[in-house]
């Protein structure tokens, strides 16, 4: 790493002294190989080819890449190698005003007192604040392009203070993003500025990298949905999602504040609409970000002292600006009221499990299901590396509560997806059966062979699973062998099998880390290629492209730069 | 809507050319799906119309409408240029507070912020001033104080020794004392019995946790910055370690230190043996190449949050001395460390630098704006603003003298009564030295649910050429003062707006009359209520101007030709939006 800049300097001085000769030579040497490795020198500053590229081009590319993390509500931007983004900007209505429209700056207008109380439906209430929805049916892509263009221009001019388009761009995007959306983002950026290339990095994997782990379960408590992504050796192996996320939480809090407001002014508009919110969105978000919290798991059996601690907290009153008269008065609200929406939304309190749809599982169940869908090896590794990212993870107490719930779920059910009364009964019967089996050693129950056969494997697997954790270390000779092999490198064994949280610096920091280590992403979209074909030009053939033979060369996909792939986004 | 009524906005023509998406060759400007509940679906024949009426109500129009001051004009493309159709290059960086220029090499390392003494208040963003604690003296201890909200760095326990180089002092302090401050605060916070939990931060319920417990204890609570650095060096080491073996063909030339290798390292051990078999066994390394491992200790950047870390935060959130204002707002937290939750965690922010940028036309790369290099100078070397090329439009209500027997028409543009016609004067002032022919077109009803009828009484007219200011003054000395009519207040009400006739005309300006009948609000019960600003009366007007200009560009034309051939006919067409006023709902009143 350190030698590269100096080597570069040498080369540059050399080229300047004998400019013509070197350029000639470069042209000769580059031509024959170009069918195989065209443009490979462009950004591989560390490889030996980089130094032979024209100084101007490589000089440009040496500039720090700029990393944008694109979310539904916020965009983070900064330079590679920094630990925090330089700025975080939203997509609110203030950002989409006309130029020269300074209403947002008129004092007090954001918490406008004068504007009449307007009821808006819960579904529409927050829609002005998000850039896109996963459901693209009523999303105007042109509008998104406009917003993206303006936000990028503003960020470059205000915060990054760099010329847009000169340096490489790295986009950190969720691994599931609608193709039309990705396409319009990319085409906006490519056609508006002259970015040489755009690299896409997945959010979840970058969060794992920023935590220092290679495998993890990344739980993104995001805006529109919560995703639990199992990462094994930096690859996404399983993803599950739930609509219980910050948007629903804000809506719930909005409903609560609306109720407060209407209670306060009982005489006027007794709008008893369940699905309407009258309070200001910013105010509500402010309340959530300041005061939302989450209790411990209510354990029925043991009441330990932290719950006693909270019982005093629950009686406390917190004064917040009154939702109906924002700037003038404060009202007192029970502190516990700010925990209730969180628990209701994220943990689905008060709803029985079988009433829930597949897409609205509570977060602990979501995590449990994701872990369940992983193969046991990966599961053991991932469950002790749970990473929480996203806005919801900032709510104090949420992460702990989720882990407690997951832990208890594992304790209760083990790793068996089968639930229900009948199963319980069968299990009971099987237990009796095994007891009787022990009595008369080889006696199969002739009355019910089918049921026993059906449930035996799961039962056995479960038992095995339970035993595994104790026995594995002792019995598994492969493990032992591995450990012996690892001993000389003094690697402590991996922690596995317990529920544990690992804190990540966030996806943006991960991308910054990875980019500053000169690691190139799998998905690197070239300007020219994209402008010719768009997303349709991406090669679908992942097998031949990514990993297998070209990996040896160390260069990205070796000779075949003519095709590019969308990788996980394909 | 934004500005006081009446106002004019210009829509940059670049909005009509959508972003070329290579995969879908063409997309209509508005996606056909966009039929939200507030807007009835336009009839299909209207969609097929070639020239679609500009709709100021569409959410996209917010991104293409600009006040005329914001627009530039490219002399080569003969087109209006908005911030979207120019490219910018930074000329210099400077601090807007102290007006010191920052050399480009320093900008990045300073985090794009002023490296001197310029700070903004973290609470209210007003500039902070260095003040001595004791009145009169200018001796240490010094603090940064906000003159607006009275916040000082004393609130977070920071004082400075010297009045210079505050940024360096501050960063030294925060780096060294962040841990101490945190620790002292939690220890000092005797009220909460849970606060001690946070100091047993790194308790890991595993067997190997005790191995390096001592080093862990001193290294606990790495702040994000230190963690990032630790992780970075950890990855560096891992990459170096795993690619060190010289026998490994992967290690030497395109080794793991080369870019693009990490993802391959990651998948290495899964398929390497198979691969090695494929690629000639003679090169196969004796043992498997070492695999990158994960970070295992705090020193390497791993952080296991303690189970009870949140308790103290929750305690503090509920405590009486914190309250609503003790929490930092979202806005305040935007540029702070991600852990900052309370106002006490906020640090003063160095002022963001600003840039002077030169602007080029995106399509022809000609420079449109080039500012003077020095930050103190406000002058420009090149500046092609649109105002000097396209006519300046101003709108004014025509207030007629009150007639006997009739109530005087209200001139309050913020509350226009529906169905009561108003007349407006639209004045176009030409800044070019060529006379211009202008034609205006407008849809007869505004594209809003509150559809107002609009008539331009004289849609086609000429505007005279601009000339030197002195000429006007000399002419005005003899002629009657045109300002009497421009003010819109005619003494006796003898002047009546007539169709097809220009209202008034001056040397380089012309005024025409617009007649507007504000529409009524939809009264049907089932219709959704009006959106914000839907009651604003905005008129889209299509402006087309033609003029003959001297052919400056074509220098190759032979000089011997007549004067007529030197003149080139130019044409410019664009949409403007006239904001007339806000219609009041008389049903609601």
TrEMBL record, chain A:
Record's compositionally biased regions (Polar residues): 24-55, 450-459
Superkingdom classification of source: Eukaryota
SUPFAM superfamilies xrefs: Actin-like ATPase domain (SSF53067)
Gene3D superfamilies recorded: 3.30.420.40, Actin, Chain A, domain 4
Biased composition annotated in UniProt, kind: Low complexity: 13-23
Biased composition (Basic and acidic residues): 540-553
Homology family: Belongs to the actin family.
Pfam families, A to Z: Actin
InterPro entries associated with the record: Actin (IPR004000), ATPase_NBD (IPR043129), Heat_shock_70_CS (IPR018181)
Ranges for region Disordered: 1-59, 433-473, 537-570
Protein name: Actin-related protein RO7
UniProt-listed PROSITE patterns: HSP70_3
Automatic annotation (TrEMBL), chain B:
One Pfam family this sequence matches: Dynactin_p62
UniProt keywords, alphabetically: Acetylation, Coiled coil, Cytoplasm, Cytoskeleton, Isopeptide bond, Phosphoprotein, Ubl conjugation
Keyword Cytoplasm: yes
Annotated Gene Ontology cellular component terms: dynactin complex; stress fiber
Superkingdom of source: Eukaryota
Bias kind Basic and acidic residues: ranges: 22-32, 200-221
Main location as per UniProt: cytoplasm
Subcellular compartments: Cytoplasm, Cytoskeleton, Microtubule organizing center, Centrosome; Cytoplasm, Cytoskeleton, Stress fiber; Cytoplasm, Myofibril
Region ranges (Disordered): 1-61, 171-221
Record keyword Ubl conjugation present: yes
Subunit structure: Subunit of dynactin, a multiprotein complex part of a tripartite complex with dynein and a adapter, such as BICDL1, BICD2 or HOOK3. The dynactin complex is built around ACTR1A/ACTB filament and consists of an actin-related filament composed of a shoulder domain, a pointed end and a barbed end. Its length is defined by its flexible shoulder domain. The soulder is composed of 2 DCTN1 subunits, 4 DCTN2 and 2 DCTN3. The 4 DCNT2 (via N-terminus) bind the ACTR1A filament and act as molecular rulers to determine the length. The pointed end is important for binding dynein-dynactin cargo adapters.
Family: Belongs to the dynactin subunit 4 family.
Name of the protein: Dynactin subunit 4
Source organism of this protein record: Aspergillus sclerotialis
């Amino acid at each position: 790493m350190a030698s590269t800049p100096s080597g570069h300097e040498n080369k540059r001085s050399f080229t300047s002294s004998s400019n013509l000769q070197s350029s000639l030579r470069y042209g000769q040497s580059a031509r024959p190989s170009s069918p195989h490795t065209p443009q490979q020198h462009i950004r591989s500053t560390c490889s030996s080819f980089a130094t032979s590229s024209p100084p101007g081009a490589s000089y440009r590319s040496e500039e720090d890449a700029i990393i944008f993390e694109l979310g539904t509500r916020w965009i983070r931007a900064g330079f590679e190698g920094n630990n925090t983004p330089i700025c975080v900007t939203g997509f609110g209505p203030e950002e989409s005003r006309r130029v020269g429209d300074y209403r947002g700056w008129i004092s007090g207008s954001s918490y406008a007192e004068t504007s009449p109380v307007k009821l808006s439906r819960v579904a529409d209430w927050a829609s002005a604040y998000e850039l896109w929805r996963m459901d693209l049916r009523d999303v105007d892509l042109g509008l998104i392009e406009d917003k993206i263009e303006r936000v990028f221009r503003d960020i470059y001019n205000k915060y990054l203070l760099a010329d847009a388009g000169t340096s490489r761009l790295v986009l950190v995007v969720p691994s599931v993003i609608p193709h039309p959306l990705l396409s319009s983002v990319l085409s906006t950026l490519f056609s508006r500025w002259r970015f040489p290339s755009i690299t896409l990095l997945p959010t979840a994997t970058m969060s794992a990298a920023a935590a220092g782990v290679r495998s993890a379960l990344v739980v993104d408590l995001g805006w529109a949905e919560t995703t639990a992504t199992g990462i094994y050796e930096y690859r996404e192996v399983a993803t599950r999602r739930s609509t219980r996320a910050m948007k629903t939480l804000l809506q719930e809090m909005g409903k609560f504040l609306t109720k407060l407001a209407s209670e306060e002014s009982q005489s006027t508009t007794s709008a008893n609409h369940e699905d309407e919110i009258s309070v200001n969105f910013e105010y509500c978000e402010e309340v959530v970000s300041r005061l939302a919290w989450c209790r411990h798991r209510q354990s029925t059996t043991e009441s330990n002292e932290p719950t006693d601690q909270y019982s005093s907290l629950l009686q406390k009153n917190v004064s917040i600006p009154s939702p109906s008269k924002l700037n003038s008065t404060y009202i007192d609200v029970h502190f516990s009221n700010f925990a209730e929406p969180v628990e209701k939304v994220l943990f689905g309190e008060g709803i029985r499990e079988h009433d829930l749809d597949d897409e609205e599982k509570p977060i602990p169940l979501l995590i449990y299901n994701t872990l369940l869908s992983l193969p046991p090896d990966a599961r053991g590794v991932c469950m002790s590396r749970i990473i929480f990212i996203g806005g919801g993870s900032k709510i104090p107490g949420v992460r702990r509560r989720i882990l407690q719930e997951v832990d208890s779920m594992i304790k209760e059910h083990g790793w068996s997806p089968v639930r229900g009364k009948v199963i319980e009964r069968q299990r009971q019967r099987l237990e009796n059966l095994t007891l009787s089996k022990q009595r008369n050693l080889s006696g199969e129950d002739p009355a019910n062979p089918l049921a026993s056969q059906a449930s035996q494997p799961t039962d056995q697997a479960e038992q095995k699973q339970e035993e595994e954790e104790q026995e594995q270390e002792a019995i598994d000779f492969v493990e032992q062998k591995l450990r012996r092999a690892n001993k000389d490198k003094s690697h402590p064994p991996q922690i596995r099998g317990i529920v544990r949280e690992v804190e990540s610096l966030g996806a943006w920091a991960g991308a910054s880390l990875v980019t500053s280590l000169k690691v190139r992403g799998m998905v690197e979209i070239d300007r020219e290629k994209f402008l010719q074909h768009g997303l349709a030009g991406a090669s679908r053939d992942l097998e031949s492209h990514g990993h297998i033979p070209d990996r040896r060369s160390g260069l990205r996909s070796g000779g075949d730069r003519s095709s590019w792939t969308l990788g996980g986004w394909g | 809507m934004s500005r006081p009524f009446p106002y004019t906005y210009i829509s940059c023509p670049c909005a009509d050319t959508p972003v070329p998406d290579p995969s879908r060759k063409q997309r209509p400007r508005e996606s056909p799906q966009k039929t939200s509940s507030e807007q009835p679906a336009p009839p299909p024949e209207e969609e097929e119309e070639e020239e679609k009426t500009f709709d100021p109500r569409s959410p996209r129009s917010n991104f293409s409408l600009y006040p005329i001051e914001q627009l530039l004009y490219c002399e080569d493309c003969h087109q209006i240029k908005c911030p979207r159709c120019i490219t910018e290059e930074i000329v210099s960086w400077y601090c807007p507070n102290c007006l010191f220029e920052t050399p480009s090499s320093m900008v990045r390392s300073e985090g794009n912020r002023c490296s001197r003494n310029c700070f903004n208040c973290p609470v209210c963003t007003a500039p902070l001033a260095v003040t001595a604690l004791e009145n009169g003296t200018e001796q240490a201890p010094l603090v940064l104080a906000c003159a607006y909200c009275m916040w000082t760095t004393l609130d977070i326990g920071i004082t400075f020794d010297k009045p210079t180089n505050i940024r360096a002092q501050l960063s030294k302090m925060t780096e060294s004392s962040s841990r101490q401050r945190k620790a002292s605060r939690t220890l000092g916070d005797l009220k909460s019995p849970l606060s001690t939990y946070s100091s047993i931060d790194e308790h890991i319920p595993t067997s190997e946790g005790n191995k390096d417990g001592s080093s862990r204890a001193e290294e606990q609570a790495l702040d994000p910055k230190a963690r990032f650095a630790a992780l970075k060096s950890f990855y560096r080491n891992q990459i170096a370690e795993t690619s060190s073996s010289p026998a490994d063909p992967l290690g030497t030339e395109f080794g793991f230190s080369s870019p693009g290798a990490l993802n391959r390292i990651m998948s290495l051990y899964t398929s390497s043996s198979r691969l090695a078999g494929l690629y000639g066994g003679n090169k196969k390394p004796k043992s498997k190449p070492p695999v990158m491992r994960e970070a295992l200790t705090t020193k390497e950047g791993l952080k296991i949050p303690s189970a009870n870390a949140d308790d103290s935060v929750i305690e503090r959130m509920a405590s009486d001395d914190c309250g609503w204002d003790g929490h930092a707002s979202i806005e305040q937290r935007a540029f702070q460390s991600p852990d900052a939750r309370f106002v006490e965690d906020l640090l003063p922010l160095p002022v963001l630098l600003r840039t002077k940028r030169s602007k080029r036309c995106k399509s022809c790369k000609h420079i449109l704006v080039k500012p003077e290099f020095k930050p103190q100078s406000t002058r420009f070397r090149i500046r092609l603003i649109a105002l000097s090329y396209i006519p300046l439009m101003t709108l004014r209500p025509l207030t007629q003298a009150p007639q006997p027997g009739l109530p005087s028409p209200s001139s309050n543009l913020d509350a226009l009564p529906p169905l009561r016609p108003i007349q407006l004067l639209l004045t176009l002032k030409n800044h070019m030295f060529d006379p211009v022919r202008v034609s205006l077109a407008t849809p007869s009803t505004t594209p809003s649910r509150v559809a107002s009828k609009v008539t331009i009484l004289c849609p086609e007219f000429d505007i005279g050429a601009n000339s030197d200011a002195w000429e006007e003054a000399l002419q005005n000395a003899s002629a009657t003062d045109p300002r009497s009519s421009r003010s819109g207040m005619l003494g006796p009400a003898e002047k009546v707006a007539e169709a097809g006739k220009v209202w008034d005309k001056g040397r380089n300006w012309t005024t025409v009359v617009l007649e507007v009948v504000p529409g009524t609000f939809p009264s049907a019960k089932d219709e959704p209520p009006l959106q914000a600003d839907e009651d604003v009366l905005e008129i889209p007007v299509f402006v087309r101007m033609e003029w003959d200009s001297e052919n400056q560009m074509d220098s190759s034309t032979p000089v011997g030709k007549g004067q007529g051939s030197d003149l080139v006919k130019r044409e410019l067409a664009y949409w403007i939006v006239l904001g007339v006023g806000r219609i009041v709902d008389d049903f609601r009143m």
